[in-house]
Specification:
Blueprint (H helix, E strand, L loop, with lengths): L7 H5 L6 H10 L3 E7 L3 E7 L19 H17 L3 H7 L12
Antiparallel strand pairs: 1-2
């Protein structure tokens, strides 16, 4: 699956109560809505990240999403991944006031 573009502000605001603001931020990052068939007479809303096209090679609920809840879940998981990313704890240590090894005498 391709890396999904998720603005930091959208991750921070990710909730149904803030959906309008979250969607605005995602649109600014290149996300879009596409309508597609569902069942006999119904239409389905799909939320697509930049550079993703529904069809061969793209998988629903992995590369694009068919509900707001799925988009919000992605944003929450991206937030968790960002917090757990290599260097996240290092950044916290760097701001704790501890001396870094580079600053110690040889």
């Amino acid at each position: 699956a391709a890396a999904v573009v998720v603005p930091a502000a959208a991750r921070r605001d990710a909730s149904m109560e803030n959906w309008a603001e979250v969607w605005h931020q995602l649109e600014q990052a290149g996300w879009r809505i596409e309508m597609g068939p569902r069942g006999d007479n119904n239409m389905q809303t799909y939320y697509l990240p930049p550079d993703i096209t529904r069809g061969p090679g793209a998988k629903n609920r992995v590369d694009y999403f068919d509900s707001r809840a799925q988009v919000l879940r992605l944003l929450k998981s991206e937030e968790a991944l960002a917090a757990a990313a290599p260097g996240a704890s290092k950044r916290r240590r760097d701001h704790s006031g501890d001396a870094s090894p580079a600053g110690q005498a040889a």
